[in-house]
Amino acid sequence: MSAPMEISFSVPPPPPESAPASLASTPAPPPVPAAAVSCSPQPQPEPQSQPAAAAVAPSPADDRFHISVEVLLHSTSVARHEEVQAAVERMLEARSLSYVDGPVPIPTGDPFLIENVKRIQICDTDEWVENHKVLLFWQVKPVVHVFQLSEDGPGEEPSEDDTLSSFNEWALPAKEFDGLWESLLYEVGLKQRLLRYAASALLFTERGVDPCLVSWNRIILLHGPPGTGKTSLCKALAQKLSIRFKSRYSMCQLVEVNAHSLFSKWFSESGKLVAKLFQKIHEMVEEESNLVFVLIDEVESLAAARQAAISGSEPSDSIRVVNALLTQMDKLKSWPNVIILTTSNITTAIDIAFVDRADIKAYVGPPTLQARYEILRSCIQELLRVGIITYRQGCSMPCILNYSTLKEKKHSLDAAESDGAVHLSSLLYEAAELCEVNSKTADLLFAVNQ
Prior knowledge:
By secondary structure, this protein is of the alpha/beta class. It has helices spanning 81-93, 111-116, 126-130, 180-183, 190-206, 230-244, 269-285, 306-310, 317-332, 352-357, 369-385, 403-410, 420-434, 436-449; strands spanning 65-73, 98-99, 102-103, 117-122, 135-136, 140-147, 155-158, 165-172, 219-223, 251-257, 290-296, 338-344, 360-363. It is built from 14 helices and 13 strands. Helix 11 (369-385) crosses helix 13. It starts with 64 loop residues before the first strand and ends with a helix.
């Protein structure tokens, strides 16, 4: 089997009146990574009040970074999304802020936003933070995405014998997946690379790029050891894209295929079940205003290497399943409003024809030291919030520093003072280092299984 290749194209530059793509942005719509505002608002100083040495002229409009601002409405809100978008844009323009991860406080003096908006947040700035970049208000053009969460839950499609559902279906963005994207911690750039790829793939097909010259299957394959969050990452990616593309597609759906329901006890029937399932997916994508995400977990069960069947170690009916799957995926390629998300724990068991069809193949391994620290930090903060764990009686709980701040303080001269925050964070850092043993064990077990 040939070594997996990764394809990651940059999004084409936007029209002259909008900002160019950057390391953390794509043309709007959809801008692909986001940022957030965490600094407290301050009145914008007059130009003449700034010292000459510190004065910096605002960048021209075409030099600004596109930053995605996600605005979640209350479930009871009936306000038009365009009106909320305009109100949030006015609110952001009236403030002098630096853009970093975190929520944007809703102004108490704005009754319209108070009544309709539940949360304003900008995210996905880890690439900027890694490079120690801070974006100031005059460098940024906020791109506001307004959405409401669907509370319907998953719907099921019964199989032929009514014992297992052939797939589960969610209307996106779903309440079940709210906050999932932010809770997943990986190496810097992984989530943004997937987000940029998916946005680029949709943009290429939407603009009518000739598929004979630039071929996009819109298939993502995430592979790695079990338990690293591949399935959750697929669901979170679909949720995030449904928010960013809400202005283009009136409806977004996630279809999670139940591979086990597609195998029949009757010879040659499995391939027909696969074809029948994809026929229903075809009916969904025929509606141009509908964006469909197809999730196939443990895809090796449907796309098993046909060489094993030829050698006699697998039933020959599996060849029909693989053939049906590849044929149906090729048919979906002609529709611009569908993305196929797949995961696998055993990539060597996947048919090479399917692997070649995947545009991007991303390895999702055990968490790095930074990810382990942030995972433990978020867990402790949540337990402190609900009061399950407490600090010493009569003492105020020091804040737990984030990974970057802790590294800076540990290497600074002030670290010798070892205040409460640094001491507590250092203990958590040591715990994150000890967790590496489990990560190495997982890698070893995965290698043995291979």
